[in-house]
From TrEMBL, chain A:
InterPro entries registered for this protein in UniProt: ABC_transp_permease
Protein name, entry field: ABC transporter permease
A GO CC term assigned to this protein in UniProt: plasma membrane
Locations listed in the record: Cell membrane
Membrane topology according to the record: Multi-pass membrane protein
UniProt keyword list: Cell membrane, Membrane, Transmembrane, Transmembrane helix
From TrEMBL, chain C:
Keyword check for Transmembrane: yes
PANTHER family per the UniProt record, alphabetical: ABC TRANSPORTER PERMEASE PROTEIN YPHD-RELATED-RELATED, INNER MEMBRANE ABC TRANSPORTER PERMEASE PROTEIN YJFF
CDD domains: TM_PBP1_transp_AraH_like
InterPro entries (alphabetical): ABC_transp_permease (IPR001851)
Annotated transmembrane regions: 6-25, 37-56, 62-80, 87-111, 161-182, 212-230, 294-314
Topology relative to the membrane: Multi-pass membrane protein
Name of the protein in its database record: Sugar ABC transporter permease YjfF
Length: 330, 512, 326, 298
């Protein structure tokens, strides 16, 4: 577990704290929590709950980016898996529904991974193909409608709670731990970082770089599919037109805010998820603030820039001071 | 040289530079006079490259002043240094493989007319410029399609042509062969004759004594001293660099003639690839060092890549311990217990961002597979063992390997493969850029490994080095294996004779 | 030279694709459709030219779509509401957009931040700013608009080469010349080849970065003006998602996203390939919304796969002849 | 012979849009018209391209559901030059282009907002009422108009006040998310008296948010939204929604009739064929309407 904990990440934590504080200012009841029908209720829970899809996406995305790739198709994959889950929900049990939806994500990931690692396409165009076509496939499944369902099992995935914690949040946490355990518990993490850091050198050191690349796209597809199922469960319907729309950009943003370079190499799962939370904390704050929606994007731009500047290696800001202190101690 | 001491051209006083906790330079002084060739020497990681970068402003200095002809300058970028009259060839060939050779030579100073680059004129000048270095190549082809040697010559030619007052060359000869070194030295002498001051970094002491007027030695980021070359005995110089005596390690080869008795580790019959290397036969035995000798572009690296599995052969049969095997990828090579230190460590070797520890365990981990991860304790143990064994500096396994000096990166690569306990190790230019101490160390290590039963295939452009440790030497020419020398036959003149057997080929075109 | 083989391959792919489409819909092989292709994709061609510089230099610019949107709104408001003469409005917006790009470039260089994210923030900023200006679409009635949009060179066969198509062709040619013939162009390739090395060779990396993003935003501004000619209106939601189309066009045109290689002409061909895909789907006219998306994806895949196959094919004979020679 | 008509559709961004497409197909089939639908994926440039290619194919008429009200002059001029009549569906375009199209079959979205506002004012009566508003996509003209109409209607009643207004992008997920934060910001939702959503999808999401917060939509909190998609009737039948204003998906029917008459007899239709903005409430047997609308492709 210690391997999961960030060694860097002070800038991110600081950013989160600052944004939380701003949220508290615009909305005095921001930190209020109470139990509502056996489920925690409050803005903080909203942040976690609404942040779940992007957090899940960023878990897969961070691995893809670590190999120097990028996956633009995650939003479309969300739509596909949501559509499949919603269409099967009322006629099949939850295991079948989940297997089908996650299986679809796996196939999508395999496709992307195949294009990138076997055909050698540039990741951004390779996944652009599925980004465009995938939403079409999702719409094909739903025929452009919002397919609703009432299966209590699936609804529980979106709206239920375990010990007061919303199920999506528990799932995201579970996935974080699972991914962390797989990646850091095996040699996968090292080999992925090596592949992203220098693919040629890693190949020559005997690393199966193609297999690594295939694996991360598959995992990214699965994570996206899970996010899609949760998004569908949340609104008790699959909205193939809008589910996951533009979320790929949020996921990439989360990963970068989490300090992982788009040029591959070192990555941190925890910080990527933290990045997703930072984004959602900002979004929720915007919604609570009561400003007219015309300002949303401006606020977002300013916050993103501020968070990035905080991390800038060139800015001897907070992180620089801390790093220096730590070095002095060492 | 002139008798009266020339005025100081470049003067650096009290230069200090730290990278975090690492104090790379502490109060270093350096004086270069006009018309002087000044060698800057020191062990790997002594701070030579850092001093150069601090002078040219690539790294901001923590302290110190720089004067050119007595006038204080403070370049803050490579461009500013150029404008101040300092032209530099940095250690890692810093050119642009995607641009044409001509563009590389004239980047940012192309001949222009009406805001438009005069391509033809630029190509003409590029051809003429490289011609002066004995290089006759297509200058409109991308630089990346040429060998490292050509790239290095290009970098030098560019710096020379900048007609600056100070020319700094950081290990320019590391990947050049004798002939090119001769040409370079001629040019350096000419430039010095014109009053240009030249700083020359090298680990080849022969070259230092051949060319330099004056020597400055650094050790652990501090100035040890500055001496006239003529009055500095070699052993004294080595003591200055290492801070101790160097044990004489020019060990003789193990008893020769017994190699027939050794067991064959790997053999290649009729092995080759069309358009890459002509089919060859090669037997590598346990406890034996086979050297590959040849000119640049003769196919040594290609042979190494085929043997390791980095390139697929399209004919011939490979056997490991007598069993036929197929080597389709580096993974196959690794699986059969091969290791390969490529010559281009920056692009093919290190993963710059990862730590020394991670770089060292990488091949071993890849060999063990995903499911059997090395625990952190095992990793630490392996890393610290090799850091100590190979004297990697600074001895911090958690340092990103990209921040190490060139020679130390090379040692990390060697450690990576030693950690896999290979049966066959292929070393492509293992001593390139390595200091005298480490050089001796690596040669000793090669012998030791060999005595432990490892089979070694070593490529080196240093013929005396090859002669020192090889039990057998395979000579290549024009991408074909042309001769094999064993036992007493192994000496420099025989190798040269084999290389030059077809003397017409000496004009070398380094195109890959 | 270095850009040629990929460009040639892209050209072959385009011609092949065009021929296949024309076999199925003979109407496609008309000057009218070709003229439409140029007109309809004029703004895309212009931004893609700028994007080519950015991508070759190893960066990316996600803000272009929003800059187009902002430009249309700004121009429309300036002309219609604020009573600014059109040409003054154009100059103002070009200065503004160039400044915007320069600022992004400066942030990227000075703070050493990834271009992807800085320009993503730029994308939010420009779109947000256009919302602030006006959320309604504003029609432009200035006479220059009808003059420009009515102007067209008649091509034989009923096609029209419109003013905006001509502007686009001029910019593509200008961009190609700038990239291949000038010191600036060489430095762009140098930056993409290796930033550190370029810096050590004396290229003023910071100034180049600022200029490259400035150029991209400036061209996005011009594309915005062209877009406003195209639609005679300013609308804050126009050109949403254009950045991805642009990147796709650049990459299809043979430019490597890792930087250092590529060409403006290739990009232009990439734009035409995308336009052709769109035209084909429109001619078919039986596709539902989802089949349109799927078909677009499949065609995109087909073109890229064809290109890769041609590249592989182009490589093979070389190896063979070399083998024969040895 | 058989008429060929090109229909430049916006996309399929919502269930309503999908229904419009499928109803259009049905209506065309009924009249044996060959309807070519080009889907613009929400992009004006794609619509312009589509119209150009319809012209190149020499269709008999063009239907256009414009994504935005401006920017059609030059392409519609081309259509006019090619003597192809154009009918606008669902949304109007900028007044300067009136002579460029034959007729427009549209609803008045300002009016829709007014109908919603009037209903709310009437239902609330004199008591003070804090309204929260879920807007459509920022910049979309429908969103602006529905806001304008609603604001006009409630401006006459000083007891009605919009206390919060955010965009829910016309989607369920965003509608739910925004409503969640409205509830938090308004003291757990106790002070909210009514929700107005620019479309039903957002309202469906908002209803879920209210239920999860322990509120009773339809009873404690009034709801009124626009479009009349089937799912809102389901909610209405369950007593969780109060009112919706219909936007009929059948725009193509009247348009086809107008074109047929124009082609056969040269009858020039009126410039604007307005569709009805009918208000539905729980009194209208929502279950029955749900069943009848379910099959329309929403
Ligand atoms: N960018 C950097 N960041 C951190 N440490 C650095 C950096 N560059 C060099 N160092 C450290 O500074 C010290 C001096 O390195 P330098 O490259 O100057 O050695 P050198 O004398 O040139 O060695 P070599 O002969 O191997 O090239 C080394 O310990 C190295 O690890
Ligand atoms: N398939 C390949 N992939 C990557 N690099 C290669 C490949 N083949 C050769 N090279 C590189 O191209 C360069 C040209 O090789 P060259 O013909 O000079 O080999 P060589 O005889 O080993 O010469 P030297 O080692 O002295 O540079 C070498 O630096 C080699 O590393
Ligand atoms: Mg050095
Ligand atoms: Mg070699």
């Amino acid at each position: 577990m210690t391997a999961l904990l960030p060694r860097r990440g002070l800038a991110q934590i600081l950013a989160l704290i600052v944004i939380l504080a701003v949220d508290r200012v615009v909305s005095p009841q921001f930190f209020d929590l109470r139990l509502q029908d056996g489920r925690l209720f409050g803005s903080l829970i909203d942040v976690l709950n609404r942040g779940t899809p992007v957090a899940l996406l960023s878990l897969g995305m961070v691995l893809v980016i670590a190999t120097r790739g990028i996956d633009l198709s995650v939003g479309a994959v969300m739509a596909i898996s949501g559509a499949i889950a919603a269409s099967l929900a009322d006629s099949h049990g939850l295991p079948v529904v989940l297997a089908a939806a996650l299986g679809a994500g796996l196939v999508c990931g395999l496709w992307n991974g195949f294009l990138v690692s076997v055909l050698g396409m540039q990741p951004i165009v390779a996944t652009l193909i599925l980004m465009v076509a995938g939403r079409g496939i999702a719409q094909l499944i739903t025929e452009g409608r919002i397919v609703t369902f009432s299966s209590p099992d699936l609804v529980w995935l979106g709206n239920g709670s375990i010990l007061g914690v919303p199920v999506p949040v528990a799932i995201a946490l579970g996935m974080l731990i699972l991914t962390g355990a797989v990646v850091r518990g095996s040699a996968l993490g090292l080999l992925i970082e090596a592949t992203g850091g220098n693919a040629r050198a890693s190949e020559l050191a005997g690393v199966g770089t193609r297999a690594m690349i295939l694996a991360v796209y598959v995992w990214c597809g699965v994570c996206a599919a899970l996010a899609g199922v949760i998004a569908a469960a949340d609104i008790m319907g699959a909205d193939a037109n809008n589910a996951g729309l533009w979320l790929e950009l949020d996921a990439i943003l989360a990963v970068v805010i989490g300090g992982t370079s788009l040029f591959g190499g070192r990555f941190s799962l925890v910080l990527a998820v933290l990045g997703a939370l930072i984004i959602q904390t900002m979004n929720t704050g915007i919604l609570l603030s009561g400003y007219p929606p015309e300002f949303n994007l401006l606020v977002k731009a300013v916050v993103v820039l501020a968070v990035l500047l905080l991390q800038s290696p060139k800015l001897s800001g907070f992180s620089g001071v801390v790093a220096r202190l730590r070095r002095a101690k060492a | 040289m002139e008798n009266s001491p020339a005025p100081s051209l470049l003067e650096a006083r009290g230069i200090s530079k730290s990278f975090g906790a690492v104090r790379a330079l502490q109060e270093v002084d350096f004086t270069l006079r006009a018309g002087e060739i000044h060698a800057l020497l020191g062990e790997n990681g002594a701070g030579k490259s850092t001093l150069i970068k601090a002078i040219t402003g690539v790294f901001p200095r923590d302290a110190g002043v720089i004067r050119i002809s007595g006038e204080e300058v403070a370049p803050r970028s490579a461009k500013a240094a150029l404008q101040a009259g300092i032209a530099t060839v940095y250690q890692e060939v810093n050119l642009l493989p995607n641009l044409s050779v001509a563009q590389n030579l004239f980047l940012d100073r192309q001949p222009m007319r009406l805001g438009i680059v005069r391509e033809a004129e630029m190509r003409r000048r590029a051809k003429a410029l490289l011609g002066g270095f004995g290089l006759d190549i297509d200058v409109s082809a991308p630089l990346g399609s040429y060998s490292v040697a050509v790239q290095h010559v290009t970098a030098i030619a560019r710096a020379v042509d900048l007609s600056a007052r100070v020319l700094i060359l950081d290990e320019p000869t590391a990947s050049l062969d004798r002939h090119e070194v001769e040409i370079l030295f001629d040019i350096m002498r000419q430039l010095a004759g014109r009053g240009i001051g030249i700083v020359f970094v090298s680990h080849f002491l022969d070259q230092v004594y051949e060319i330099s007027d004056c020597i400055t030695v650094l050790r652990n980021g501090r100035l040890v001293g500055q001496r006239e070359t003529a009055s500095l005995p070699r052993l004294e110089l080595i003591r200055m660099m290492l801070g101790r005596e160097l044990a004489e390690t020019t060990s003789v080869r193990a008893a020769t003639g017994e190699h027939q008795a050794r067991e064959v580790c790997a053999s290649f019959e009729g092995y080759g690839k069309a358009g890459y290397v002509a089919p060859f036969n090669l037997e590598l035995r346990h406890g034996e060092v086979v050297g590959l000798a040849g000119l640049l572009g003769s196919g040594r690296t290609e042979t190494a890549r085929l043997v390791f599995g980095a390139e697929r052969a399209d004919r011939g049969q490979a056997k490991v311990e007598g069993e036929p095997v197929r080597l389709l990828s580096p993974r196959d090579g690794v699986r059969h217990g091969f290791g390969y230190c490529p010559e281009e460590r920056k692009t093919d070797g290190i993963v710059a961002e990862l730590t020394v520890r991670e770089n060292i365990v990488l091949a071993l981990q890849a060999k063990r597979g995903l499911h059997r991860p090395l625990s952190r304790r095992e990793q630490d143990e392996i890393a610290s063992r090799y850091v100590k064994m190979l004297d990697i500096r600074p001895p911090d396994p958690e340092r990103p390997v990209g921040l190490l000096s060139g020679g130390n990166q090379q040692k990390v690569l060697l450690a990576r493969w030693l950690a896999t306990s290979p049966r066959l190790l292929v070393l492509d230019e293992p001593t390139r850029g390595i200091d005298v101490g480490a050089h001796a160390e690596i040669i000793r290590l090669i012998r030791e490994l060999c005595d432990d039963g490892l089979a070694l295939l070593v490529i080196s452009s240093e013929l005396d080095e090859i002669v020192t440790y090889s039990d057998r030497v395979v000579v290549l020419r024009d991408r074909a294996h042309v001769d094999e020398l064993t036992g007493e036959a192994i000496d420099i003149s025989n190798i040269l004779a084999a290389i030059a057997a077809d003397s017409a080929v000496v004009a070398h075109e380094g195109r890959a | 030279m270095k850009g040629l083989p990929p460009v040639l391959i892209t050209a072959i792919v385009l011609v092949l694709g065009f021929a296949l489409c024309a076999v199925q819909f003979p109407n496609i092989a008309s000057t009218r459709v070709v003229g439409n292709l140029l007109t309809d994709n004029a703004f895309l061609g212009i931004v893609a030219t700028g994007m080519t510089f950015v991508i070759i230099s190893g960066g990316i610019d996600l803000s272009v779509g929003s800059v187009i949107g902002f430009t249309t709104v700004f121009v429309a408001l300036a002309i219609e509401r604020w009573g600014v003469p059109p040409l003054v409005a154009f100059v103002a917006i070009l200065v503004l957009s160039a400044g915007f790009g320069a600022a992004m470039g400066a942030v990227i260089h000075v703070f050493d931040l990834p271009p992807f994210i800085v320009t993503l923030a730029g994308m939010f900023l420009a779109r947000g700013a256009s919302f602030l200006l006006s959320t309604e679409s504003v029609p432009i009635t200035a006479p220059i608009y009808s003059t420009v949009s009515d102007f067209a060179l008649r091509l034989p066969g009923g096609g029209r080469l419109t003013a905006i198509a001509i502007i686009m062709l001029a910019i593509v040619i200008g961009g190609a010349l700038l990239l291949t013939l000038t010191r600036f162009g060489a430095n762009v390739y140098a930056l993409g080849g290796n930033r550190v090395a370029a810096n050590l060779m004396g290229v003023a990396v910071g100034r180049m970065t600022v200029r490259i993003y400035m150029l991209s935003s400036l061209l996005a501004g011009i594309a915005g003006i062209v877009f406003s000619f195209y639609t005679s209106a300013g609308y804050s939601l126009s050109a949403v998602g254009v950045e991805l189309d642009t990147i796709a066009a650049v990459v299809i045109g043979g430019t490597l996203l890792t930087g250092g290689q590529g060409s403006v002409i290739g990009t232009f061909l990439g734009v035409l390939i995308q336009g052709l895909i769109q035209t084909y789907i429109n001619f078919d006219g039986t596709l539902s919304s989802w089949w349109t998306k799927i078909a677009t994806g499949v065609l995109l895949f087909a073109f890229i796969a064809l290109q890769q196959a041609l590249v592989a094919l182009a490589r093979r004979p070389v190896a063979k002849s070399a083998g024969a020679a040895s | 012979g058989q008429l060929t008509i090109g229909f430049s559709q916006i996309g399929s961004e919502s269930g309503w849009r999908a229904a419009e497409t499928s109803v259009s197909k049905q209506e065309a089939a009924k009249r044996q018209v060959n309807l070519k639908i080009a889907d613009a994926q929400q992009k004006q440039e794609n619509q312009i391209k589509a119209i150009r290619s319809f012209i190149a194919q020499n269709v008999d008429a063009i239907f256009l559901a414009p994504v935005v009200s401006t920017g059609w002059d030059s392409v519609l001029k081309e259509a006019k030059e090619a003597k192809i009549p154009v009918v606008l569906l669902d949304r109007d375009i900028d007044p300067s282009g009136k002579e460029l199209y034959l007729t427009a079959v549209t609803s008045d979205s300002v009016h829709e907002g007014e109908v919603a506002g009037d209903w709310l004012a009437k239902t609330v009566g004199a008591k003070a009422c804090n309204i929260v508003e879920l807007q459509g996509t920022v910049g979309a003209s429908v969103a602006a108009n529905r806001k304008k109409g609603f604001d006009t209607a409630i401006a006459k009643h000083s007891n009605l006040k919009v206390v919060r207004s955010q965009t829910g992008d016309f989607t369920r997920a965003k509608g739910k998310e925004v409503m969640e934060s409205f509830i938090k910001a308004e003291g757990g939702g106790k002070s909210i008296c009514a929700v107005y959503a620019h479309n039903d999808d957002m309202m469906v999401g908002a209803i879920q948010a209210m239920k999860e917060a322990g509120l009773k939509p339809g009873k404690e909190i009034l709801t009124v939204s626009i479009d009349a998609v089937p799912d809102i009737f389901k909610a209405m039948a369950a007593g969780e929604a109060n009112a919706t204003v219909e936007l009929t998906p059948n725009m193509a029917g009247p348009a086809l009739d107008a074109i047929a008459a124009f082609k056969d007899k040269g009858t020039v239709p009126p410039k604007w064929i307005q569709t009805e903005s009918k208000l539905y409430t729980a009194a209208d047997d929502p279950q029955k309407i749900y069943d009848s609308k379910k099959g329309l492709g929403y």
